[in-house]
Structure of Pyridoxamine 5'-phosphate oxidase family protein:
Amino acid sequence: MSSTAAPYPATPRTTPTRARERAHYDHATVHAILDSDYICHLGFVSADGGPIVLPTTYARVGSRLYLHGSTGSRPLRGAAEGLRVCVTVTRTDGLVLARSGMHHSLNYRSVVAHGTAHRVTDPDEHRTALDAIIDRIVPGRAADCRPATAKELAQTAVIRLDLREVSAKVRTGGVNDEPEDRDLPTWAGVIPVSRTLGTPVPDPAMSAETPLPDYLRRLLAEQGLRRGQE
Amino acid sequence: MSSTAAPYPATPRTTPTRARERAHYDHATVHAILDSDYICHLGFVSADGGPIVLPTTYARVGSRLYLHGSTGSRPLRGAAEGLRVCVTVTRTDGLVLARSGMHHSLNYRSVVAHGTAHRVTDPDEHRTALDAIIDRIVPGRAADCRPATAKELAQTAVIRLDLREVSAKVRTGGVNDEPEDRDLPTWAGVIPVSRTLGTPVPDPAMSAETPLPDYLRRLLAEQGLRRGQE
């Protein structure tokens, strides 16, 4: 998706009631946040009218979001004919410690997507979606593992949400204290929060000579603890 | 809450349709997960009948969950008379890389709580809840910052959910490949995922002589990069 594509439209549901300056609708911002986490929170309304929020793995392919059926069959039974969903992805980036309790905050990036999800029934799309979900966890991994058999595919459900009504919210930067609080003696500032990958734990059943694949070395070089830091 | 308290009861909504061995109902497991994150995902049903999932700060106090009103006023308007909610907290602990695509997974800890939330109107409970939400971010912080004024309290809404119908799901351990896949040449194992606090970034407006408080030193000693690792 080109960064020059028209932004996602702002709608009443995707326009915040406060802190509007934190809202973003451009593809680059929305997609980068969606591509930065392992788990999304899938919301839907149960048969009895109550809200349900379940964590599940997912992936973005263009302007489509694919969610894995491991959240149990309840939402997926409904998705054959279309299930209204809200999918939210949130990363925490910092603890914002202000001088007043009131102005404590978090630095974060989140995306909220609304729409009607449908179960993926086309076999090619189903396979592509499952590969994308694996590659969301470790880019390059899907091509390196045994593909799903027809039986496995039949056991694994995927639902698709086309990204149409979607927005990002981002808070960055430092503390926003009231001017009259600036001279209080309390320490104020931001504690950065990051996610780190640790030393791989090989499956004990695997030959000790099995090399760590290049795509994993690359990922660890980008997001892992540097050697000697563990 | 004593660890010998009776577990939360399993209900149809809190009994998973699959991987039932991952479900936990004891207070110690449920509370520890709730006490391990900065953000929960709050689900509710909007006036038009659609699901909404918003990230927000929160804290647990005993068997009560308090959610901060910074998610916007929409859910809080409904909460005066009781709002059906589902609150979910999820931590990712590892990337589980199996030999088959099918058995890829994440190690994670999640809690899902169902119930009816109410807006907190008692001034003492309101203040206690806001302090707990600050202390969830940095334990000990609430006592070190300027308390909310009456005007600030009036601007800040908190909703409470009593924990009654709540369960945890936890996946730990290694890969669960099919026996016939064990000899495939693919690297298999787990990549640990952890959250790390970085070097504090002091507010530029603060005197350079302001010491880092003890509670922050302790937190960084527990969860921060060790000195020289950054």
Summary: Chain B has a mean pLDDT of 91.
